Amino acid sequence: MKLPVLEIFGPTIQGEGMVIGRKTMFVRTAGCDYSCSWCDSKFTWDGSEKDAIQMMEPEEIRDALLEKGGDHFGHVTLSGGNPGLLRQIDELVDLLHDHQIKVALETQGSRWQDWFTKIDDLTLSPKPPSSGMKTNFDTLDFIIESLQQEQQGDFSLKVVIFDQDDLHYATNLHLRYPAVTLYLQVGNDEIETDNNENLVGHLLDKYERLIDQVMESSVLKDVRVLPQLHTYLWGNKRGV
Ligand SMILES: C[S@@+](CC[C@H](N)C(=O)[O-])C[C@H]1O[C@@H](n2cnc3c(N)ncnc32)[C@H](O)[C@@H]1O
Ligand SMILES: Nc1nc2[nH]cc(C(=O)O)c2c(=O)[nH]1
Ligand code: SF4
Ligand SMILES: [Mg+2]
């Protein structure tokens, strides 16, 4: 069963969340059920690159990964768009596992798929108010309960923070799911710029301010505060 693919790239480092720094390849699928105001991957869902979408069989994706990454990788991250929309990713996960390749997933937690239980490093990234999206907590509760009962790998929550309301949202999320490791990630509000020097200075400032705020919280004790590491290295460049 074919999958809509927009990018296959790497090896690079995972720049975000629970396996930050890990050497990985990326497969970016097309299509999203959200439209976050600050999405840094709008091209996956805004129609601007619909002609570039390739419909690929899992074997073709594996071959493309091997062609790009050679024998230099053992980890693949599925991102998008929302890969959680695609029931047929199941086959790709099995195929990669057959090759002893670990599989990570980036999804916002708006949809469940049975293959989530096979993912080695699963990041749920529910969206705070600044995104303009509304979390369906019935769905998120179901996903987290299912993962807690059945998942073979690790999973975590990751919230991108732009403002006070977002931090408040993340605080409530931590109270709702205290047993799930929570990552807070600096929001990039300069997704169009190609001035990397200014961008890095700006994002470092924001990282420091986010750290200060989290230090003052009596609820956010058990959290990890991270930059979006790849943007500090390569700015808004794609495919890295
Ligand atoms: C592009 S999304 C694709 C996966 C999935 N749709 C999701 O949102 O989790 C990958 C990650 O990038 C984060 N992200 C998107 N735009 C961002 C921005 N402007 N600043 C920081 N993180 C961002 C998302 O929150 C998500 O954690
Ligand atoms: N290096 C790197 N790390 C990432 N972590 C999450 C990414 C994404 O866009 O999903 C991403 C990405 O695009 N590049
Ligand atoms: S859910 Fe992810 S891919 Fe979809 S719009 Fe939001 S950040 Fe972008
Ligand atoms: Mg990204």
From TrEMBL:
Domain named Radical SAM core: residues:
19-236
Please explain the role this protein plays, according to its UniProt record: Catalyzes the complex heterocyclic radical-mediated conversion of 6-carboxy-5,6,7,8-tetrahydropterin (CPH4) to 7-carboxy-7-deazaguanine (CDG), a step common to the biosynthetic pathways of all 7-deazapurine-containing compounds.
- What is its quaternary makeup? Homodimer.
The source's domain of life comes to Bacteria
Q: Respond yes or no to whether keyword Translocase is given for this record.
A: no
- Chain residues that bind S-adenosyl-L-methionine: W38, C39, D40, G81, S125, P126, K127
Name of the featured protein: 7-carboxy-7-deazaguanine synthase
Specify which residues bind substrate according to the UniProt entry for this protein. Answer: I13, Q14, G15, R28, S79
EC number(s): the record gives 4.3.99.3
User: Which reactions fall under this protein's catalytic activity?
Assistant: 6-carboxy-5,6,7,8-tetrahydropterin + H(+) = 7-carboxy-7-carbaguanine + NH4(+)
**Record note on cofactor:** Binds 1 [4Fe-4S] cluster. The cluster is coordinated with 3 cysteines and an exchangeable S-adenosyl-L-methionine. Binds 1 S-adenosyl-L-methionine per subunit.
